[in-house]
Amino acid sequence: MGHFQALNQYYVLLFLCLVLDSLVLFSRGGTTSSYVRRLEATLDMPLDSDVFRVPPGCNAPQQVHITQGDLEGKAVIVSWVTQKARGSNTVLYWKEHSCKMLKARGKSKTYKFYNYTSGHIHHCPISNLEYDTKYYYMVGVGQTKRKFWFFTPPKAGPDVPYTFGLIGDLGQSFDSNITLTHYENNPLKGQTILFVGDFSYADTYPNHDNNRWDTWGRFIERSTAYQPWIWTVGNHELDFAPQIGETKPFKPFKNRYRTPHRSSGSTEPFWYSIKRGPAYIIVLASYSAYGKYTPQYTWLAQEFPKVNRTETPWLMVLMHSPWYNSYDYHYMEGETMRVMYEPWFVKYKVDVVFAGHVHGYERSERISNIAYNVVNGICTPVKDQFAPIYITIGDGGNHEGLSTKMTEPQPEYSAFREASFGHAIFSIRNRTHAYYGWHRNQDGCAVNGDTMWFFNRFWHPIDDSPDDDD
Ligand SMILES: [Fe+2]
């Protein structure tokens, strides 16, 4: 009898524990990671850091970076800076195993920002490249030559695998360097970076010290010279400083970085589209006008119907300011753009939206909030299998530090969030499946802090929530 009583008490206790546990698990929207990151000052690397080193040699090209140069993926734009003299605008390039050297000629210019004058910034488009091919290229012809290489993407197609890396809000702190190193060592080997905005944080220095744009360019060259970074502009690219007479927004960005906006019919470099392998990538501008009748609105309205999911099954959107964000920082800053564009995102079955701005990590459920029409009182996001997953990946490591405060309780729409630095990988395997992982800087390179198998919204629109699978 005593034995049965003890057993009964055990089962009652077990039951209570399970109830309590489930209350803890399900009373909130999703998971707020229990991972506690050591919190210490995130400092910019000093000017004499080795990652900022000027390459040796007479007027050697520095800050070399490449990006996609057209809509289809058959062109790149090579950019670099020569500090002392203009030097050659030419890029020499050749296919691997080929003796035939080709030549492309670019243009260069300088710009001034308050009391700063830039070096000679060169941009050289190279077109008519072959798909899925390794090319070598050389800049600094006639003075100090520097050689790099890149791979062109495979031709767009429904079952072409391709792996993207994701970094946002990088800056140039010691943590930024860890993020980039971590990405480089990730065994999943990202082939192109989708960068979601906030580059150098030069604007946080007195008079927007543009020398910090140069140091940033030298810091990231070890990646940007070898694989394209797809640029999204953030608020730190605005560089709007009327107090020192700098009234043209985005001046350093526009001079230093190029996007292939014209090939997708865009009128500004801040919003544009590219196809890359199996992905159609739409880049939006959080800090350019997006209301009805604006150039960005008009362009986007025409852009979505163009996407052919048989050619490019994965539809991805990049922007800087997130629409769904449950941190206390930048809360609802993306709300007006969400109100304008979210119905299109659901209608056209966007798979995933990547944003930055908030210095932490967050992944949403598949949710939408498009029922709201001012008078119906419906204003809560609901689960929606045709809606994208929203991912905030503004955790690149810049010197402003982490956003640690979150709204409590965790909203229903938020599936996972953690205030740590890191990067992510979006690895498309075929038209139906993509493997996604977020990697925090403190872990080993192969460790996932958060992971999910994405099911394509056009080809395989069934529930892909990791929680439901569990
Ligand atoms: Fe930002």
TrEMBL record:
Its cofactor is Zn(2+); Fe cation. Residues 61-150 form the Purple acid phosphatase N-terminal domain. The keyword Hydrolase applies. Its EC number is 3.1.3.2. GO terms for molecular function: acid phosphatase activity; metal ion binding. It catalyses: a phosphate monoester + H2O = an alcohol + phosphate. Coiled coil: none annotated. Pfam families: Metallophos, Metallophos_C, Pur_ac_phosph_N. Residues 163-361 form the Calcineurin-like phosphoesterase domain. The keyword ATP-binding does not apply. This is Purple acid phosphatase. It comes from Brassica carinata. The lineage of its organism: Eukaryota, Viridiplantae, Streptophyta, Embryophyta, Tracheophyta.
